[in-house]
Amino acid sequence: MRQTTVCFALLLLASLFACEKKKLGEQCVKHAECGNEQCITVVKQRVCTKECHADVECGAELSCFVAGSAAYGYCGAADKTSKRVGEVCENSSECDHRLCVQNLNAATGVKEGYCSKICDNSKDCGGSKECGSGIGGSVKFCKK
Known about the structure:
Blueprint: H1 2-16, E1 39-42, E2 45-48, E3 51-52, E4 63-66, E5 73-76, E6 100-104, E7 111-115, E8 130-133, E9 140-143
Antiparallel strand pairs: 1-2, 3-5, 4-5, 6-7, 8-9
């Protein structure tokens, strides 16, 4: 009986001092640190994240970034020093949402790029931009 009481007391004490899981967007090292069990590198730093299809799914302070050729992105903090959606770019690392869409200008034969972001529908793009498919056909992005 005494051993059971001691074990119960230790379990109770451990639960009182259990570490809280980190929130979306907070820096992390391991998956286990995060409330949603996902710790990956998003825009140069490891953060607790989740899958997303548009910025609105990430909350007010975070953005949805392209995740390679996957059909979704990951939430992370936008790089405020990078080019914004719609600005001219040559590669994705220049853009705040890490997506540079390259189109071939039929008249000149020259590739022209612009920063974009992934989206679920045209409301996610704002203004006169539309949300359309592209990137391997699996991810939709804001078109110029």
